[in-house]
Amino acid sequence: MSIKSFLPFWVGLLMGWSSVAQTWQATYTGTGIHGSSDDTALEWVCPLAGGGAIVCSYGALSLNEANLFIGLNSQGDVVWWRLYRVSNPPVSGSWVETVYLYPLPNGNALALFHIKVPGGILVRNRTLIAEISANDGSIVWQRYPGTNDTPIFYSYALIRPDGIYLGGRAGNALSIAKLNFSGDLLWHRTYSDDEKNLASEVTRLAFSPDGHLYATVRNVDNFNEVNDYFSVLKFTANGDWIWAKRFRIDNGVRKVALSDLAVSKSGNPLILGYSFLPGPVSFVPFFLRLDSQGNFVSAWRRPSNPGAGTTTQDIIPLGDDEYLLCFDISDRIQQYARYNLEHGVKWVRNYEVPDLVYVHYKTMLAPDGYLWSVGQRLNLSPLGRISVVTRSDEWLFERPSCCLKEGTLSLTDYASAFQATSVTYSPQPSTWPLESLSLTFTTPNINRRWLCQTQSLAISLSDTVVCTGGCLTARASDPNIGTITWQVVGQTPITSDQPVSLCFNRPGEHWVTAWSKSDSCRRGIAKVRVFDLPTPTISVSDSALCPGGCVRFRLDTVLPNYTYRWSFEGGKPEAFTGVEPPEVCYAQSGRFQTRVQVVGCNAEGAVLVTPDYQPALVANAFTPDGDGTNDRFFPRLRCPADPYRFVVYNRWGQKVFESLRSGEGWDGTQNGAPAPSDVYVWVLELRDRRDDGQLVSEILRGEVVLLR
Fold first, then answer.
1. N or C of the chain: less Cβ packing under 10 Å?
2. If 0-12 CB within 10 Å is exposed, 13-18 middle and 19+ buried, where does residue 351 land?
3. HSE on the CB side for 567, CA within 13 Å?
4. Are 612 and 549 in contact (CB under 8 A)?
5. Residue 383 clears pLDDT 50, i.e. is over it
6. pTM, full prediction
């Protein structure tokens, strides 16, 4: 029973500022994995929302006709691993290949399996679509589109918030489809090229900001793997065809291999690929930019020497029209270049594998800001393949001495090399039949041992959960470590030999990275969760307030373990810290805002207080009929007044009522007898207290109608 090694490398890569750093390396050895000394390499990596990843092989492992899947946590520990086999093969000897692996929103992974059927070139292979559990590698659901007579062959998937988009071919026609996250079909489209001698297959899909779907299409004669032209197509979000353009390079002299597709924030398709001449290896990468109508905008190519060359791998969007471009150089260098559409190349980093041939397959950006890449080392003496996984920290600011070294990237304008022609694709009727086809898995044993490991830096955070706008204290667990650089994604690094304060103004998960100034490969990382607090709401004890009056404020909801800071504009006291402030008094009239802030967070509430003097409110009629409603006539004072005199006169100037107490009213009698219905005159003399306690005398007059 043979043993293979899987060598993960953890590498730190700064997307916007600097470089890539190797932090540790381990080897994974297993038993019962395969039956041959020449094993298939790991060729896919799928970073997961939980911080780990799934890596898998592409083709079938020798003799066992199975694919290898390994589940890793964020520290590189093996959580599970599986060998997948075809459980009910359509033909004896069928095997499985993994052609796509990508993270789903629920934390699991989507896999596209090709079921390879032996029997010659006329035997049609099959595609199996499955959701793989991140917890244990089990299959959550699986779908097989097609039958023996109508196969549908998918080789690419695009995960969007609204579902899963698939690209491939159905017979000679290109095929795109959309599934929901349970694997149910939402729609399916097929289109055939007007040149009937060409077969078409979608190789990549990408969405533009305005909701259009772009696709790169491989056009092949008699299903050859490569040709001297390729197509770019544009669809609606529902898969309806809009336009297509076919491109040749150097008048068709060079063959073309497409690597990846992206769309800029302005909606322009970006194609990364490489071309080559038959014969001695001479790979020339190119980067092509089109406009939204498929017209040529610009292109560059990377010069290459005959017998050697550089192949392209992935475009990883970084935001603001910047992209990470991934290359393989010659036989042992993996290269990353940060490219800006306006300013060109910002930096280049090389990872050179000494003494071993290195082949780079896939790089993906994880939700936590890390890059994962996968490939293989080929040890040619003796012959054997050793799979390699590389995890890259996107956000490390300085380049440690143990990092990847600086590289160069020579670019040449390539505008004259591309010739474009329009091509029409016609919709074809097609169905989406489903047949039973499934995978099973077995669980062998696996062990890990260290090859090398840089020293970790233990860091301590005063809190790992804070509110938006909150801060925490970060320090090294070892007080003798000296000067440390602290980095939070999107913030300016802080370098200090003392504990530092780190603040977070954006909700979500944030990674704090720290490394020693004296030994930049000694580093640590921790995660902080930041969340929005609800807005505090304030209630007021009195909404009608006179100058000199006082009110109380209270919080409708009090969150425990938080400190509240109050400010009372125009009031006394002016401020208070705590949950229940004292009575607040207002000497002036006006509009004043009371605010409460949750200390250390971007959460605050406010309410308006409007102390204001208003004259007395006096009715213009009353009905002293004893029914309990409007039986007495008196002024209603909003603000207190002292002294006070209220007098009512009849039309002949005779006084019928007088009171020196507010709230005491006339009952409609004169000398003990009911006064007649008529119009009466009233006079109100008062002195009220205005702003700053000033007493103001005022005489008000009016008329009232007594009704019987």
1. N
2. buried
3. 10
4. no
5. no
6. 0.65
